[in-house]
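queue> holo job accepted (zinc ion)
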Amino acid sequence: MIQDTNDNASNDQQLNPATHPSNSLDWLSRLIAFDTVSRHSNLALIHDVRAYCEQLGLTVDLTFNEAKTKANLFVTVPAGENADQINNGLVLSGHTDVVPVDGQDWTSEPFTATIRGDKLYGRGACDMKGFIACALTILPQAVQLSNSGQLRRPLHLALSFDEEVGCLGAPLILADLKARGITPDYCIVGEPTNMAMVVAHKGIAVYRCRVHGKSAHSSLIGQGVNAISYASKLVGYVDTLAEELSTRDDNDALFTVPYSTLSVGTIHGGTATNIVPNLCEFTFDYRNLPHMTQDDILAPIQAKVAELNAQMQARAPETGIELMQEESVPAMTDNNSAELQSLIAALTGDDERHKVAYATEGGQFTNAGIPTIICGPGSIEQAHKADEYVELIEIKRCDGFLQKLLDSCTAK
Ligand SMILES: [Zn+2]
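queue> job finished
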């Protein structure tokens, strides 16, 4: 950690690499120093955390990407009379990867935690190494309670890779848990919510649509099939569906935008004004309310694609429309989390429920039947930006929250 103060004496807080930190701020500084931008390996961080867990006597489970360059880490502090109970339990979940800093104008080095005033700056400070730091800090106490037989509910820590590029890591953790017959009772995803309780989020599906027409001189349009014209018919249809979504009577007022949305984001096509274009490509995204599925909206779009394909191919058989899904993250539902919500409300003294439009791994956990909420330090407003920071008070609040949560795991 670098302290930006006038007092040089406070600048020599070098961490000893042989030992692990014992408080959340030192842990956060240590985690930020690992450049875990999604396109890089996260193995150095994972092996550091693994060494820490193994020193605590815990058994660590790693699951890897195909190239073995990235890993998820799952570790359990067991509970029960004989301290061998690893089923059920509470999962603390966080992603280890961070978004790039390319092209961003940072005041201090992004991969060196720097405290200025009441904030700690660094890539991942709020999204979401802050929560992971707090979770790692409380682990030794959980182990102590486990060893003395006082831990009644197992505590799990799940650290994933590649969340920022489409939540690619968490499904491997969930598949591994299923294979091992472990069914956690609850999960808390520590994305930045200013420690408020987020009980649901929308899903996101991103589509790319490639319209293949047929070129001709614009004076001879009868010989061509205009890719831009057909793309625009489909764009118009997507907009019509978007309007219909906004007026449905099953919308949810807890979301800032209370309905599912469809939005065209990019379009490219054509080479010259006097040429009938043979290619046009556009992308759109669909953000569905948790009670709606992504198929709800895909089915009518696919029907429209089939209709336009038939029209195009009647004129030139080699033409047509390709529709590809590029990304899909399921919505997080609050259907099965009432008990967890009550527990969190009781611990925090705040029973306000929030719903958000950004997607997390929470949807994958609820899809796997694990009741989940999102609650973590820092604000989503600071995520992904230059000079990303977390307020020190937020880390303190998260420490307090996890302490209460751990206490609840020891209650009879
Ligand atoms: Zn995040």
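queue> Confidence is low (pLDDT under 50) at residues 1-17.
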